[in-house]
UniProtKB/TrEMBL annotation:
<keyword id="KW-0560">Oxidoreductase</keyword>
<dbReference type="InterPro" id="IPR002347">
    <property type="entry name" value="SDR_fam"/>
</dbReference>
<comment type="similarity">
    <text>Belongs to the short-chain dehydrogenases/reductases (SDR) family.</text>
</comment>
<dbReference type="InterPro" id="IPR036291">
    <property type="entry name" value="NAD(P)-bd_dom_sf"/>
</dbReference>
<dbReference type="Pfam" id="PF13561">
    <property type="entry name" value="adh_short_C2"/>
</dbReference>
<dbReference type="GO" id="GO:0016491">
    <property type="term" value="F:oxidoreductase activity"/>
</dbReference>
<dbReference type="InterPro" id="IPR057326">
    <property type="entry name" value="KR_dom"/>
</dbReference>
<feature type="domain" description="Ketoreductase">
    <location>
        <begin position="8"/>
        <end position="190"/>
    </location>
</feature>
<dbReference type="InterPro" id="IPR020904">
    <property type="entry name" value="Sc_DH/Rdtase_CS"/>
</dbReference>
<protein>
    <submittedName>
        <fullName>2-hydroxycyclohexanecarboxyl-CoA dehydrogenase</fullName>
    </submittedName>
</protein>
Length: 256
């Protein structure tokens, strides 16, 4: 299927690893010209590998919590390519996990909100004009099923992702010339989740279903592309339907 992204300009935050890298690679396979944004210098290697494979990709090292950095990245993109068609906000951190609210301090809280909420606000703030000028302008955030489901020891992260879902909805109302959506994955096999869940070897023996980064990337691509035109302000949960299940498990109704 032609997603209509060939020769389009895409900016991806968090593109050096995990979901962001998967999204970047998926976009280039569709022929998009990508600007990879990450504070990790490993993003340069990603760009080099993509160019070696015949794709058009550049890397800009930046911190999305720094407004000067975000403005500079957007300015560079527009000066280099003359337009911007889609933005994928994949950068995010989990922060302190496995600790309750009374076991974390304000600095921990602020760091998570700074990256996951402020960073994506700045991203939207500085790309709205360019995206609204594009005939297919789209902004896709990577949120989480944690925006809707509370897990033990993940309050800062869950609150930040809930804010991101509402940011997408609010932007879709305020800026009707562009579309904004938020993909909400369950647990994804990324370096971050492996570290958080002490699963250095992966999730092969996990008792719960785990989503791959490539699977999430395909959902992001769909929402970034013009073929998803009716979708706006949505927040699809991508977790194999786990959010539909009762937390107490299967009920025993006895024999009939």
């Amino acid at each position: 299927m032609n997603l209509g992204l060939n020769d389009r300009v895409a900016l991806i935050t968090g593109g050096a690893s995990g979901i962001g890298r998967a999204v970047t690679e998926a976009l280039t396979r569709e022929g998009a010209r990508v600007v990879i944004v990450d504070r990790d210098a490993a993003g340069q290697q990603v760009a080099d590998e993509l160019r070696a494979a015949g794709h058009e990709a550049v890397f800009v090292r930046a911190d999305i919590t720094d407004e000067t950095d975000v403005a500079s990245v957007v300015r560079y993109t527009l000066e280099t390519y003359g337009s911007l068609d889609t933005v994928c906000g994949c950068a995010g951190i989990s922060g302190p996990v496995g600790r309750r609210v009374d076991e974390i301090d304000a600095a921990d809280w602020d760091q998570v909100q700074s990256v996951n909420v402020r960073g994506n606000f700045l991203l939207a703030n500085h790309t709205v004009a360019a995206l609204s000028a594009s005939d297919i302008g789209t902004l896709v955030f990577v949120a989480s099923d944690s925006a809707f489901i509370a897990f033990e020891g993940m309050t800062p992260y869950s609150v930040s992702k809930a804010a991101l879902v509402m940011l997408a909805r609010s932007l879709s109302v305020d800026h009707p010339r562009m579309r904004v959506n938020a993909v909400c994955p369950g647990i994804v096999d990324t370096p971050m989740s492996r570290a958080d869940l002490d699963a250095a070897e992966g999730f092969d023996i996990a008792s719960f279903p785990v989503v791959s980064a490539d699977q999430i990337a395909r959902h992001v691509l769909f929402l970034a592309s013009p073929i998803s035109e009716p979708a706006n302000g949505t927040s699809p949960i991508v977790d194999f339907g786990m959010h539909c299940r009762a937390a107490i498990g299967t009920l025993d109704f006895g024999s009939s």
